[in-house]
Amino acid sequence: MLVYKISPDIEAFSTNISDSTDFEVVLPLHQAHTALVRRVPEEIDDITGVDALITDRKGLSIGVKTADCVPVLLYDAIHSAIAAIHSGWKGTAQNIIKATISRMVKEFGTVPCD
Questions:
Q1: How many whole angstroms separate alpha carbon 36 and alpha carbon 77?
Q2: Tens of pLDDT, residues 15-67
Q3: Taking a C-beta distance cutoff of 8 angstroms, is the pair 88, 71 a contact?
Q4: Burial class of residue 101 in the structure, from the number of CB atoms within 10 Å of its CB (0-12 exposed, 13-18 middle, 19+ buried)
């Protein structure tokens, strides 16, 4: 497992599928390769076919699993909001990162340059 200290409040890490994690919300291993974004825990019951999670809930661990796709982590230090994105080629073509940032702007008041 590789651990990244992003800030005193944020820790990210990469794991193998066999590694155990204590994430409270993890997208299923087989994402749908979409540009769908959900806010958790508010939309926890609707994460099927979703490739990005956002939250501003302190202490809530979120994550995505990837194989040959790219995991993208975003952090808004001003609003203490985070995103975990599974960016495969289809999601990338559908602008999943832009969709995630747009949702963070709407939900948390994120300013993209932050």
A1: 23
A2: 555 556 666 555 555 567 788 899 988 888 877 788 899 999 888 878 777 77
A3: no
A4: buried
Residue type, 59: G
pTM of the model: 0.78
pLDDT tier at 103, thresholds 50, 70, 90: very high
Q: Which tokens hold the place of 99?
A: 């969709």
Three-state helix/strand/coil letters over the chain: CEEEEEECCEEEEECCCCCCCCCCEECCCCCCCCCCEEECCCCHHHCCCCCEEEECCCCCCEECCCCCCEEEEEEECCCCEEEEEEECHHHHHCCHHHHHHHHHHHHHCCCCCC
pLDDT (tens digit per residue) in 85-96: 988 888 889 999
